[in-house]
Amino acid sequence: YHGLMARTTVKGHTVWLLEPQTFMNLSGKSVSALARFFKIQPQEILVAHDELDIPAEDVRIKSGGGHGGHNGLRDIIAASGSNEFARVRIGIGRPPGRMDTADFVLKDFSSAERKGLPVTLELAADAVEAVVELGVALAQTRVNAPAAE
Questions:
Q1: Distance from C-alpha of 126 to C-alpha of 83, rounded to nearest angstrom
Q2: What is the pTM of this model?
Q3: Nearest-CA neighbor of 69 among 53, 55, 80?
Q4: Taking CA 54 as the corner, what is the angle to CA 120 and CA 105, rounded to the nearest 5 degrees?
């Protein structure tokens, strides 16, 4: 499947995990190969990805939609022929000043960013579990709700 794959159980549901080993811009090759082999419908796919339009360290769930300029999502949509998959969007924020977007997304994490990474990844893992257990719509209301002040 052009990636590292595992089968596991999450909240009582069998789940296939896939980490494409292609270039990020060619993720669709890996995702579509696994989906075709196991007859997984686009609505059953959940893609976790970085998102410029969400503040750093924030996590949101979305169902369907366009690629928003994300080349990995663009390739998954093209290879699968559908944009009807769910997404766990992991915020990275916008590049500072006039920094090129490609340079921004490819740079190493700063020490401050590395400090917050474990919490962000935990939030993303919780979002994945919520989608598997509750479905996208209910998971969105739980995960996307603003934090209590």
A1: 23
A2: 0.90
A3: 53
A4: 80
d(CA 27, CA 3): 9
Return the ∠ at Cα 46 (arms to 129 and 145), rounded to 5°. Answer: 55
Any bridge partners for residue 16, and if so which? 7
Inter-residue contact 72 to 27 (CB < 8 Å): yes
The first and second tokens of residue 28, run together, are 């669709």
Angle formed at CA 101 by CA 24 and CA 121, multiple of 5 degrees: 55
Residues 68 and 56: their CA atoms lie apart, in Å, by: 17
Of the given ranges (60-64, 85-89, 111-115), which has the lowest mean pLDDT?
111-115
Residue 94's contacts (CB-CB under 8 Å, 6 or more residues apart) are: 52, 53, 104
Tokens of 103: 């340079």
- Please choose, from the candidates 114, 85, 91, the residue with its C-alpha nearest in 3D space to the C-alpha of residue 27: 85
**pLDDT tens string 16-50:** 999 999 998 999 999 999 999 999 999 999 999 99
The DSSP bridge partners found for residue 61 are 88
CA atoms of 28 and 71, how far apart (whole Å): 10
Q: Which residue has the tokens 């995960």?
A: 143
